[in-house]
């Protein structure tokens, strides 16, 4: 398989609207902002309800951002396979993220017929310093 994306940013945001609308349960906080060879980037606009005591964006919120971005990155490269599922996701929380827009850039490390391994880097929007890093494995259903 090629690492050239076959879905555009618009296609991926439309997929979230139509096939995975549950991701918008908290409102429109997730948005695909870029895709390219072997990667995709999403934006998260956290709200007060995504904070934990101490004013930091919660771990479950960062985990969700990494997971959704990995899913979108995979779909950008294999097409709208809604039943691709996470089989593993490990995350390291590196720094305290403030209540501000965050970005997650996910890169494909391996894309096989049945499994994909991806790397996710989360930072404040436009910043270089990571607040979290994750690796994810996805199971791809047979065609």
UniProtKB/TrEMBL annotation:
The keyword Hydrolase applies. Signal peptide: none annotated. CDD domains: PaaI_thioesterase. Residues 54-124 form the Thioesterase domain. One of its GO terms (molecular function) is acyl-CoA hydrolase activity. The keyword Repressor does not apply. InterPro entries: HotDog_dom_sf (IPR029069), PAAI_dom (IPR003736), Thioestr_dom (IPR006683). SUPFAM superfamilies: Thioesterase/thiol ester dehydrase-isomerase. Keywords: Hydrolase. It holds the Pfam family 4HBT. This is Thioesterase.
